[in-house]
Amino acid sequence: MDATTLIEDVIDREGGYVDHPADRGGATRYGITQAVARAEGYTGAMRDLPRALAARIYRRRYWQAPNFAAVATRAPLLAAELFDTGVNMGPSVAATFLQRILNALNRQQRDWGDIAVDGNIGAQTLAALDTLLATRGPAAEAVLVKAINALQGERYLRLAETRPANEAFLYGWLALRVDTPRV
Question: pTM for the whole thing?
Answer without folding.
Answer: 0.88
